[in-house]
Specification:
Layout lengths: L7 E4 L11 E2 L5 E2 L2 H32 L5 H32 L2 E4 L1 E4 H18 L3 E4 L8 E5 L1 H18 L5 E9 L2 E8 L6 H6 L3 H7 L12 H12 L2 E5 L5 E12 L1
Parallel strand pairs: 6-8
Antiparallel strand pairs: 1-4, 2-3, 5-7, 7-11, 8-9, 9-11, 10-11
Helix pairs in contact: 1-2, 2-7, 3-4, 4-7
């Protein structure tokens, strides 16, 4: 799937379209079109959001009324809120796949501050970092960047939060995940660095592919034993006009999100 070619376009679902047409499975059962699969995934995501919203609201109420001295109960509620946020993130990824399959994703690109993108994504992921017992930091220099990027903002945020959450999941407790950014020519390179188990050369090549994610599930020592965050990070990045990759590092891992720069703000 190539990058976004215009200011606004439809995502046509070139990735993982189950062949893109109806067919017969080995059992003789007719397989639905990829578009129908996408519609069903969308319904599934919608049905998951309804009870999740109610659960999140009830936990918020308990968090507000529990006495301060009920430390253990408050901690349990806070953990529940973080779990709800994590599930909401997973549902968003599932819904993204559904939208791509049914070809109904409209991507609008417009310039906006890269500092706002980074600060928003880091703030959104802070509860997950605290739950995992580690620090999530935004490089102070990134807070002072007066640079605009020209991408689809929501999808760029999805790509970056997927990268950050992946690092949080696999970084050692008490360590620090750092988000930074630099201007490189006419592009802005955003880096997410963690000190977790380093990727092998093979995993570096396939970490963002559907095939690589599925294959990693059978490896007991794989960094990617759960979730599909990196695959969805690449889907979101390419749809919004960006790109993701793994940068070789002497220690830990470095993930890069490259965004096109348009002007100084």
């Amino acid at each position: 799937m190539g990058g976004v070619a215009g200011r606004s376009e439809q995502a046509g679902g070139e990735e993982g379209t189950a062949g893109g047409a109806s067919g017969e499975a080995s059992s003789g059962v007719t397989l639905p079109h990829a578009q129908l699969i996408g519609e069903l995934i969308g319904l599934f995501a919608h049905d998951l959001r309804n009870p999740l919203s109610a659960l999140h609201s009830n936990l918020g109420y308990l968090e507000a009324v529990l006495p301060t001295e009920e430390a253990e109960a408050r901690e349990a509620v806070e953990d529940g809120v973080v779990s709800c946020d994590g599930l909401s993130h997973v549902i968003d990824n599932v819904d993204l796949l559904g939208q791509i399959l049914r070809g109904g994703l409209s991507v609008s690109r417009s310039p906006f501050s890269v500092t706002a993108l980074l600060a928003g994504a880091v703030e959104r992921c802070q509860p997950a970092a605290r739950s995992h017992g580690l620090k999530l930091e935004l490089d102070p220099k990134a807070r002072q960047m007066h640079v605009a990027v020209d991408v689809g903002r929501d999808l760029a945020t999805r790509a970056l939060t997927n990268l950050i959450r992946n690092s949080i999941q696999h970084a050692p407790s008490s360590s620090t995940v750092v988000v930074s950014a630099t201007v490189e020519g006419r592009q802005v390179a955003v880096y997410v660095k963690d000190s977790g188990s380093a990727l092998t050369d093979e995993l570096m090549e396939h970490a963002f592919t559907a095939e690589g994610q599925v294959a990693a599930k059978v490896r007991s020592n794989s960094r990617y034993s759960r979730g599909m965050g990196l695959y969805c990070a690449r889907l979101a990045a390419r749809l919004c006009g960006a790109e993701v990759r793994v940068v070789p590092s002497a220690k830990g891992n470095v993930f890069q999100l490259t965004l096109p720069q348009v002007e100084t703000v």
